[in-house]
Design a protein that fits this description.
Elements: H1 5-16, H2 18-22, E1 52-56, E2 61-68, E3 71-77, H3 80-83, H4 87-91, H5 96-105, E4 107-114, H6 115-119, E5 125-126, H7 140-149, E6 152-155, H8 163-172, H9 178-192, H10 194-211, H11 219-231
Antiparallel strand pairs: 1-2, 1-5, 2-3, 3-4, 4-6
Helix pairs in contact: 1-11, 7-8, 10-11
Organism: Ptilorrhoa leucosticta
Protein name: Lecithin retinol acyltransferase
Pathway: Cofactor metabolism; retinol metabolism
Length: about 230
């Protein structure tokens, strides 16, 4: 029997959506990468070793484990660890090009960065997920040690091994990703209503024609329904 192409297309599309999750917007007129805030931009005095840090991004949330002394362990797609062993190059802040190639190659690394490089100007929530795991929380030192043991190159998958899987394993002992599960449910709802899919495609394309570029809130409206509709 032939496999339904829709789940396969959905899985592939979810992987590519990471490009919108982590890619940092460039300021108008800029031709290069934006720079992270200067050291001291964040007050780390309220952070404790083993804390789970969250930073809202374009569509999803980026997660990390605070290790103390202004250091955060987090999982990031990155092609560089797969092509070179030069630790000085690898330790530099991950650029958009490195990230995109990492997504395509499904290669990532658990890396340690400063709070400034990790958050990249975004607001930080501390231990916001604890309320969901009240009876599963590990000790703060255990969470930090788990994160430190995982530092290095790893496989990447938005569905099975992303930054949220990493932090929930470290702090709660179980690798889960609620935002991925929620997004998958949304995709399923879109698939069920072919008329809504087609309407979303037309609205999205009209936005591009009229505005010249799709706003960030329109991007998922265009690409997710279009590819799933075509796959179905």
């Amino acid at each position: 029997t032939m496999k339904n192409p829709v789940p396969q297309a959905a899985s592939l599309l979810l992987e590519k959506l990471l490009l919108l999750v982590h890619i940092r917007p460039l300021p108008a007129g800029s031709g290069g990468e934006t720079a992270p805030p200067a050291p001291g931009y964040y007050d780390t005095s309220c952070f404790k070793r083993g804390d789970l840090l969250e930073v809202p991004r374009t569509l999803f949330i980026h997660f990390g484990i605070y290790l103390g002394e202004n250091r955060v362990a987090h999982l990031m797609p990155d092609i560089l660890p797969a092509v070179t062993g030069d630790r000085r190059q690898i330790q530099q802040v991950v650029t958009n090009k490195r990230l995109i190639l990492g997504v395509i190659a499904r290669t990532a690394s658990v890396r340690v960065d400063t709070v400034e490089d990790f958050a990249y100007g975004g607001s930080i929530l501390v231990n916001h997920m604890d309320r969901l795991f009240e009876e599963q929380m590990l000790g703060s030192e255990e969470a930090a040690r788990r994160a430190e043991k995982l530092v290095g190159t790893t496989a990447y998958s938005l569905l099975w091994n992303n930054c949220e899987h990493f932090v929930t394993y470290c702090r709660y002992g179980a690798p889960v990703s609620f935002q991925t599960e929620k997004f998958c449910e949304t995709v399923k709802m879109v698939i069920r209503d072919q008329r809504s899919v087609l309407a979303s495609v037309l609205v999205g394309l009209a936005s591009i024609v009229c505005l010249g570029v799709a706003p960030s809130t329109t991007l998922p409206t265009i690409f997710i329904p279009f590819f799933l509709w075509m796959a179905g």
